[in-house]
Design a protein that fits this description.
heterodimer, A: 146 residues, mainly alpha, 3 helical TM bundles of succinate and fumarate reductases, 4 helices, elongated, B: 236 residues, alpha+beta, Ubiquitin-like (UB roll), Fumarate Reductase Iron-sulfur Protein, Chain B, domain 2, five-stranded mixed sheet, 10 helices, binds iron/sulfur cluster, binds FE2/S2 (inorganic) cluster
Chain lengths: 146, 236
């Protein structure tokens, strides 16, 4: 049931929020390791004139400079923006803000928890995530300048 | 819509040790036919061994829940004309299978019982020998009336992805019942009720996927009840 094609937007939000949460956490761990490698660890700063540090830096930079990692970063950009804004939507829901009030049931009316305000924030999270993609594509590959 | 409808029905008897399978049955269509009517036609005319559970045939008892064309629905409340000529019927997910389309609701009902679905009152004597009615304003009624329409059909429970991942989660039905009593001005359970579900496997596990509210045939909106429970805990 990874692709909840028969379910509502909220179920898509759930699926995306979970996938992006897991991927961004994994990325965060890798990112810390990668950045640690990038600076070469504390030992490289011990011996001036830091030739070893410079060589290490260049080596890692070369390794990271390829389109696969760039595309990965663009996807991470999408995920971080979506997860953050959609997470705010869910936090508001925890406090009962932006939800409809309970009342008598009206036949055929959508559930009050699927309020237009909640759905608007979901779409804003998607829009901001798309913006993050455009921004990162431009930053990494200069697509807007091209 | 004339002619035949093809029902593809899940068949499995775990006690017989056979493999689950889907069996195709052709049923003549008649106007106003529900999915339950189609299944009863199969049981009466084609294969008596088909196991189904139902009672009221009018969306009241909540016993005929099953997965119809991919979504949990009440078989007696679902018109064949809404679905087209090909209908796939499976047992409800998240409830253990008994046989064919019949599932076991034992865990579901014990979770229901665990939230104390009754009025908690401190005036024990008045409860035994009532002398008056408990009056309620319209506004007080509206705070919970929606959640009291639940018929405990278990559709929301089978649609919930959190129940699938974490079987200890009370599920949308039990939590909606809890809120129904918490929000009732006649109830005196107060925070004692919230404490029942304010833990690692309780209300905080809800990810607001909203599938419960989507499939509920009674407009109960359990997802709203769960958010309101969290609000009650967070706002103290
Ligand atoms: S809340 Fe709705 S779907 Fe869930 S058990 Fe009650 S009536 Fe059925
Ligand atoms: S038979 Fe009672 S709800 Fe369907």
């Amino acid at each position: 049931m990874l692709f909840p094609s028969r379910y509502s937007l909220e179920r898509w939000s759930y699926t995306l929020q979970r996938i992006t949460g897991v991927v961004v956490t994994l990325y965060f761990v890798l990112h810390v390791i990668e950045t640690g490698n990038f600076v070469g660890g504390p030992s490289v700063w011990y011996v001036p004139p830091y030739d070893y540090a410079r060589a290490y830096y260049e080596e890692i930079r070369e390794f990271l400079h390829n389109p696969v990692f760039d595309v990965g970063l663009v996807i991470i950009g999408w995920m971080v923006a979506f997860h953050a804004v959609n997470g705010l939507r869910l936090t508001l829901a925890h406090f009962g803000i932006t939800l409809g009030r309970p009342s008598r049931v009206e036949p055929e009316a959508p559930p009050r928890s699927f309020s237009p305000f909640q759905r608007a924030i979901f779409w804003i999270s998607i829009a901001l995530a798309v913006f993050a993609v455009v921004y990162s594509l431009n930053a990494l590959m200069g697509v807007l300048a091209a | 819509m004339e002619g035949k409808v093809v029902f593809t029905v899940f068949r499995h008897d775990p006690s017989a040790g056979e493999r689950p399978r889907f069996v195709r049955y052709e049923v003549p269509y008649r106007s106003g036919m529900t999915v339950l009517d189609g299944l009863l036609y199969i049981k009466e005319r084609i294969d008596h061994t088909l196991a189904i559970r139902y009672s009221c045939r009018m969306g009241i008892c909540g016993s005929c829940g099953m997965k119809v064309n991919g979504l949990p629905r009440l078989a007696c409340f679902t018109q064949v004309s809404e679905l087209g000529r090909s209908i796939k019927v499976e047992p409800l997910p998240n409830h253990p299978l008994v046989r064919d389309l019949v599932t076991d609701f034992t865990a579901f009902f014990s979770k229901h019982r665990a939230v104390k679905p009754w009025l908690i009152r401190k005036d024990a004597e008045e409860q035994e020998n009532p002398t008056r009615q408990y009056l309620q304003s319209d506004q007080e009624l509206e705070r919970y009336i929606q959640f009291s329409y639940c018929i405990s059909c278990g559709l929301c429970y089978s649609a919930c992805p959190v129940v699938t991942a974490l079987p200890e989660f009370p599920g949308p039905q039990a939590l909606a019942w809890l809120y129904r009593f918490y929000a009732d001005s006649r109830d005196q359970g107060g925070r004692e009720r919230l404490r029942l579900v304010d833990d690692a496997t309780g209300i905080w596990r809800c990810h607001f996927a909203g599938s419960c509210s989507q499939v509920c045939p009674k407009g109960v909106d359990p997802a709203l009840a769960i958010q309101l429970l969290r609000r009650a805990v967070l706002r103290g």
